[in-house]
Design goal:
This protein is mainly β and 106 residues long. It is 8% helix and 36% strand. The protein has a six-stranded mixed beta barrel with strand order 1-5-2-4-3-6. The radius of gyration is 12 Å and the shape is globular.
Length: 106
């Protein structure tokens, strides 16, 4: 799936994750949040392989849906700062490609 990645922001450190799986940490590359229209498609616990595109196409992370991103659109994933830097080469936003590896039970 082609999409977009953005990041939470360090101000979220220590805040509870929407799936009840702990608290947000900027250095945790496993944390992924998804758009409201994907909540049913990708429930909490869904695993993803997320990769950068272009010069970053070989930079990938494995991550899990731990949260919701109310401001995200359909194929937009919100990653931690460590996650976005790993796939985009910087903290910001970038184009990505990703796939659902496993889906959690509803």
């Amino acid at each position: 799936i082609w999409g977009k990645a953005s990041h939470y922001g360090e101000s979220y450190n220590g805040q509870p994750l929407g799936c009840g799986t702990g608290t947000y940490a900027s250095g945790n590359t496993d944390i992924i949040a998804v758009a409201p229209e994907r909540y049913g498609d990708w429930p909490c616990g869904t695993r993803f392989l997320v990769c950068g595109v272009g010069e970053y196409q070989d930079q990938c992370i494995w991550g899990t849906r731990h949260d919701a991103c109310p401001g995200c659109t359909r194929n937009h994933l919100d990653l931690s700062e460590a996650g976005i830097e790993a796939v985009c080469g910087q903290v910001g936003a970038c184009a990505i490609r990703f796939r659902v590896v496993t889906q959690a039970a509803p």
